[in-house]
Known about the structure:
The structure holds two protein chains of two kinds. By secondary structure, chain A is of the alpha/beta class. Helix content of chain A is 29%, strand content 27%. In chain A, the strands form four sheets. A six-stranded mixed β-sheet of chain A has the order 6-7-8-3-9-10. In chain A, strands 2-1-4-5 form a four-stranded antiparallel β-sheet, with helices on one face. Chain B is an alpha+beta fold. In chain B, the strands form two sheets. A six-stranded mixed β-barrel of chain B has the order 3-4-8-5-7-6. In chain B, strands 2-9 form a two-stranded antiparallel ribbon.
Amino acid sequence: MSEAIVRVRDLVKHFGAGESLVRAVDGVSIDVEAGELVLIMGPSGSGKTTLLTMVGGLLRPTSGSIEIRGREITRMSPGELTEVRRHLVGFIFQSFNLWESLSVIENVELALNVAGVTGEEAKSRARRLLEERGLGPRVRFRCRDLSGGEKQRLSIARALANDPLLLLADEPTANLDSRHGREVMRLLRDIAKSGERAAIVVSHDQRIREVADRVLWLEDGRFTDMGKLVRDPVCGMSLEESAAATLRHGERIYYFCSQGCLREFQESPASYVAPSPVG
Amino acid sequence: MVPVARRNLFAEKGRFAISICGVAFAVLLVLVVLALYRGFSRTGETFELLPGSLWIAQTGTTDPFHSESLVQAADIESARDVAGVAAVVPVLVRQMAFSVEDHDLSARLMALDVPAGLPVDDKIRARYLPERGVLVIDRILADKEGLREGDIARLGAVQLRIGKVQPRSAEAFEPFAFLSYEDARRVFGLEDIVNFGMVMLLPGAAVAAALEARLPGTQVFTRLEFATAIRKEIDESFLPIIGILVAIGFTVGAAVVGLTIYTATIERSREFGVMKAVGASAVFLYRIVASQSAMLTSAGFLLGLVAALVVARLAREAVPDFATEFRSLDIAGVLVGTVVMAFAASLIPVRRINAIDPALVFRA
């Protein structure tokens, strides 16, 4: 068995206090090994992004521990956490978060500059990362001139700039059409499989399940057993069958995340594509 | 290194240009005000350019501009006998109204009775020692009053022809006109009284105390003391105003730079957040803000410097007594001021960056 890149134990994050206390993450434990791509799914507000920000060293937990390659990060100083983010973690965001005033190659170069790699070395490394992701002909383009898929590939190239052990992706396919979404999924799979790194992806996108080594379900801040997943035909959200509102329409049963979606469906059932149960 | 600061600034070219103009305006204001002060501070330079080392005046005289000095001509004559004195030149000077071609004006009329045989430089002679019947003025007075060589000036019953107009002097604040000693006696109606005695000394002589002992009722000024006494008035009335204007200039500049950088920082909060998220150190981020600030202020400084030189030149053509003098030390001082301004202007944006939570990058 290969060594865990990330080891999370009894992780808790509470916001507020007293009656307004929110248990965003409530006792989560997980190990992610090198070469592994873990998909975390769950309803909105279940604590997925909070978990991701804590593992990435951007948010301090209320309690529990997070180790990245054996280094406990929850008690690190802000400066040490910056070091961890610089060298051990790469981030991929739903809305890309590119530096819009910079060119494609400069977006990757800057990430290298942050880690102290400058000049020709930074340029050639950035170019290579972009070429590997099919962005060679676009290196001089402005970010705003790229398609959504290209932006996400650039975002991935930037995340890999400093050769991190851990990739954290937050809804990486949410803003992409089907074709570009699949491209990004393949990229993430290849990245996880090709080296000594792991990837944790938070997503509602069922398609990512195809490439994930493990799928975890987070609900109310806790990992729960993966029940049968169904899809809300109105909002597209994946949810557990047992927690969904249901409606029989014609020969089929439809599942909804909320009464609002159910009502919308009732008003115009023909508008929605027939759901396909998953899981 | 990726030029993030430059890219950020150039991403909003319109705002960048306006901000540079704002800084340039502040620099222009400060430089022109300082140059005006320097120009007016040269008032009284005539007394330094004349060959006399000492000036004999009536006791109680504060300076040649603001108090009258009346000394017996015979006393001035007797000063020649003091050991170490090479020559004594009686001087008549008086602020007076006169007319030129039906145009009324006033100037400080001055005349020196240089003894025959005293060697005098040609430039001094041309500028300060006209022949009888000639009035010498400089370019400032000529342009201000529209006077030309050959015009006739009427000083009471005496008519004088304006001679060759001399280059601009330092006396923009109180313009001088020079006439011959004989003409001055007729114009002023003085016989045995002079205003000052200009003393030329033998090399190495120190005779001020001996002169005062020899001539009761007089006091002796060095030429520097004389000029300084005149400038004291200017310093006391101008300096506080100059100080306030300079402070306003720098405040305006700092506000423009500060607002620009602050706005650019706020607009790019998310991008700075992403930099923090991917591991940019505080120093790395401060360097971006400081570079933006430095680029803005240096461009503004250069534009302001050029604008100040152009404005001063244009203003001098429109207003002849707009006397400016740009000193390299002042320019260097303003440059240092703009550096301080740039630093001060980046403090608030830096605080803003400190407050950016890198976790915000996960909010869609």
